[in-house]
Amino acid sequence: MFFNIVLTPFMIQFLKAFIAIFIITDSIGNLPFFIGLTEGLTTQERRKIFNTSILTGIILLAVFVFAGTMIFKLFSLTMNDIKIAGGILLLLIAIEIMIRGKITVEHKEDMGVVPLGCPLLVGPGAITSVLVILKLYNFWAVLLALIVCFFVIWLILHFAEGLYTIIGKNGSLIITKISAIIIASIAVQFICQGLIAVFVK
Fold first, then answer.
1. Any coiled-coil ranges, and where (predicted)?
2. C-beta separation of 147 from 58 below 8 A
């Protein structure tokens, strides 16, 4: 009886949308990037960056929830264009990290927008998934799933603060370098997928 009340069609769609969005944003898998890229910052600075990345991610996905199809039609864009552009952006960031050891930004909070908020947290995969999910499930169920998902991501990042104490400065530096290599690999993958799709078409 309880499950019949709780698991209404709306709730089932909400849960499916939530799981899909949570998996595609890969907040747990992205933790090494968040730790490595914010190495050397104070707790307060890191939390500001994390909050900025969460806000960037939810605003970006919300825009595509409300007007994704219209935006793509208006600018004659395809998901392959997003992949190529996102890949180039990530590759430039990865190269800078490998050369300088960090991202140089005028304001530290900018790091929360690029690359943490986009395209690491919300990239082409997340945007594509949301557009597909919108065609499958109730609009309000998807919107609620989006809000709850980013609240959970915020909790994960908030409590990940303890990892800095465990891994220490040297651990953070190692993670930074490894993250740069992985980010570069993801970037190349994005670019290749986009170019292959364009030329095959």
1. none
2. yes
The pLDDT profile of the chain, 201 residues, written as one tens digit per residue, is 445 556 788 999 999 999 988 888 877 777 877 877 787 788 888 888 989 999 999 999 989 888 887 888 888 888 788 888 888 888 887 887 777 766 655 556 678 888 888 888 888 778 878 888 888 899 999 999 999 999 999 988 888 777 767 776 677 677 777 878 887 888 888 899 889 988 886
Name every residue whose Cβ is closer than 8 Å to that of residue 184 and which is 6 or more positions away in sequence. Answer: 90, 91, 94, 95, 98
H-type alpha helices, 26-138: 31-37, 43-74, 79-100, 110-111, 124-136
Contacts of 43 (CB under 8 A, 6+ apart): 161, 164
Instruction: Residue 88: count other Cβ atoms within 10 Å of its Cβ.
Output: 14
| pTM of this structure | 0.73
